[in-house]
Description:
This protein has ten helices and 14 strands. The protein is of the alpha/beta class. The protein has one domain: UDP-N-acetylmuramoyl-L-alanine:D-glutamate ligase (3-Layer(aba) Sandwich), CATH 3.40.1190. An eight-stranded mixed sheet has the order 4-1-9-10-11-12-13-14, with helices on both faces.
Amino acid sequence: MPAAPSDLRALLERSRGRTVLIVGDLMLDHFLIGRVDRISPEAPVPVVQFDRDEFRLGGAANVAANVAALGGQVEIAGLIGADDIGRQLLDALSAAGIATQSIVTDSSRCTTRKLRLVTTRNQQVARIDYECDAEVDGALEERLVDSLRAAAERADVVLISDYQKGVITRAVARAAIDAARRRKRPALVDPKVPHIDYYGGASLITPNHHEAEAVTLMRIRSADEARSAAQRFRERANCESVLVTRGEHGMWLLGPDGEHDLPAEAREVSDVTGAGDTVIAAIALGLAGGGSLEAAARLANKAAGIAVSRFGPAAISAEELGKELEARS
């Protein structure tokens, strides 16, 4: 029997204060918001009248923000540049209650920033990425490995958030997964396709359906196809469990206790940006609270339903999720 909303509320409460270590690519999402009333006479592009700036945690930092908002204790390991954006990112992480002592500064690269030009009606006009995505190596890689190994000793779950911006090397992924396995803790991965060989031994990998199709060379248009792709993905990645996220079609979970088709939560979709971050954050905290993988995935499905109704990356709070579960009891 699927977990009832009351059971999921109890799991959410048990998860409060549990510790999740997040290893991954840190970003700052910068939204430049303005009003569009005309097209430029110089080129066929909209003229955006500036209104305001907004900054949000992005990438692995958004995963961390979601875990913290849901009531977890969070430590994060990653890289920033020796620049103003890096300092702004550290300040934002600290303000969200996220421990930053395992973050390494690399003076040779810039802190990743995604600048989005957006209208007041939430229509994206353009995006500019400031980044250096070369894989970290040498002494910096060793420092990062040492930092995450020490932090893993304090964690109930280890989570790899891979955006392919240089942090998740083969050695970093191996160190994170091995550190979790050594302490008999779950090791979760939000993957990138080119790094599929990095994740062997992970407890759970959460590809979206495009990533699952790319890894397995299988089309996913139905629950049966999701089942077959999840099975092949698990074999290819050499992991224990797979959760394929399928957008408006929900999720397919291939876990140790069987297979589960999790329909999407019905609501109006505003923006799917960051929804995968919300999913893996909620699963990590649910597992940290002692829940089964199925229960943690169902909790995550509820949280994702809230996240997609927001514009841009959104951190869903424990109070919001608790109210959603209570309303569906």
